[in-house]
């Protein structure tokens, strides 16, 4: 028998520094308010261009944090709230986690955690895959941020009949962020390259018109993490170093859900790169693919600039919020039954992936 939670939703205002996205936009609040009551924290949508009046017009009620927590059964946000102990034990928290160290396998006695990152790339996720959509935004913004760091207005700018020489860029990884980074750089006229560890990596990269680097280095995604404690990763780094030495822009995005990011660029490799090279480490929140990455900071090491921003998607807050909201609305509607209750069924592969081994009996509504 599936577990059931009465559908009263609370929409949080983000508190993470630099986070401007909102989990639900007024348009999707309007669609959901026909089937559930919704409360929101004032100012939750300001960073993405949505006023409190727009949420009220969509059918939601403003509430202070304490009231929202006590009256809501499902509480949604872009990021995991810092203090989850303030939430009721029979409530549900839905957010986009970083993957590593997720509470989905460890939470006991507190609220039920629905980590949206854990359904990323699943066949059944489709329009509910919030993580992949946000990753694509992040990859796009990463390239735009890198061009600013490089001091370029455009990678292929024509001036009086002369061409500015295009930059050479490489994306390491084949997740939506890395692939979108290649696509954006290609549109800007860069010479694009890619490298990945799965069997389909070459096909995915070449489909975008980029050159695949080092077909002979194609470890499987499982092997690359096992290799961290062996000499294999050291060999891979040396081989990668040769390929990366001619690049001006390097985007790294290798951090499977639930795993720390492997160090693909060590300090020795950094010293061999061209002075002025920009590295955008999209795995910064999971530890980083670069040994010198500092999450949330931009640092200069060996004349190389490493961007470790964890809020790139917020630089396109309006679009990112729309995509986040649409995916979250689709997920909530997937959970709602005809009586307006949220139903959690372990036979559903999406639910099983998000909740892990958390007990859900405690989340049954009274």
Structural features, described:
The chain is α/β, with parallel strands linked by helices and 366 residues long. It folds into 2 domains: 3-119 and 336-363, Rossmann fold (3-Layer(aba) Sandwich); 137-315, 3-Layer(aba) Sandwich (Rossmann fold). 30% of the residues lie in helices and 17% in strands. Strands 12-11-10-13-14-16-15 form a 7-stranded mixed sheet. Helix 4 packs antiparallel against helix 10 (317-335). The longest helix is centred in the middle third of the chain and has 21 residues, at 130-150. The radius of gyration is 22 Å and the shape is elongated. 47% of the residues are buried.
Low-confidence stretches: 362-366
CATH homologous superfamily designation of the largest domain: NAD(P)-binding Rossmann-like Domain
DSSP strand count: 17
Helix content: 25-40%
Strand content: 15-25%
What is the correct CATH architecture of the largest domain? 3-Layer(aba) Sandwich
Taken in chain order, the helices and strands follow as: EEHEHEHEEEHEEEHEHEHHEHEEEHEH
Shape assignment? elongated
Distance linking N and C termini: 16 Å
């Amino acid at each position: 028998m599936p577990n059931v939670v009465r559908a009263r939703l609370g929409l949080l205002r983000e508190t993470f520094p630099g986070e401007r996205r909102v989990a639900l936009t007024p348009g999707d609040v309007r669609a959901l308010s026909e089937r559930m009551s919704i409360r929101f924290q004032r100012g939750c949508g300001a960073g993405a261009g949505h006023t409190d009046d727009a949420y009220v017009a969509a059918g939601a009620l403003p509430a202070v944090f304490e009231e929202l927590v006590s009256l809501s059964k499902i509480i949604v946000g872009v990021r995991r709230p810092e203090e989850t102990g303030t939430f009721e034990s029979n409530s549900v928290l839905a957010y986009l986690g970083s993957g590593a160290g997720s509470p989905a396998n460890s939470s006991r006695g507190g609220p039920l955690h629905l980590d949206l990152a854990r359904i990323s790339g699943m066949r059944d996720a489709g329009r509910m895959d919030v993580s992949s959509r946000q990753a694509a935004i992040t990859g796009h913004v990463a390239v735009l941020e890198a061009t600013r760091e490089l001091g370029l207005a455009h990678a292929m700018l024509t001036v009086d009949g002369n061409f500015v020489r295009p930059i050479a860029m490489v994306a390491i990884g084949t997740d939506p962020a890395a692939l979108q980074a290649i696509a954006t750089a290609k549109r800007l006229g860069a010479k694009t390259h890619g490298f990945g560890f799965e069997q389909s990596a070459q096909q995915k990269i070449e489909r975008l018109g980029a050159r695949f680097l080092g077909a002979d280095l194609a470890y499987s995604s499982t092997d690359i993490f096992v290799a961290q404690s062996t000499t294999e990763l050291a060999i891979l780094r040396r081989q990668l170093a040769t390929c990366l030495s001619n690049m001006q822009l390097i985007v790294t995005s290798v951090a499977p859900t639930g795993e720390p990011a492997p160090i693909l660029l060590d300090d020795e490799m950094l010293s061999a790169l061209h002075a002025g090279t920009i590295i955008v480490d999209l795995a910064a929140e999971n530890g980083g693919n670069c040994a010198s990455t500092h999450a949330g900071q931009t640092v200069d090491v060996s004349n190389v600039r490493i961007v470790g921003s964890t809020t790139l998607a917020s630089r396109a807050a309006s679009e990112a919020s729309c995509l986040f909201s649409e995916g979250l609305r689709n997920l909530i509607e997937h959970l709602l039954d005809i009586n307006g209750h949220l139903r959690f069924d372990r036979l559903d592969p999406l639910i099983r992936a998000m909740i892990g081994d958390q007990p859900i009996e405690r989340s049954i509504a009274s």
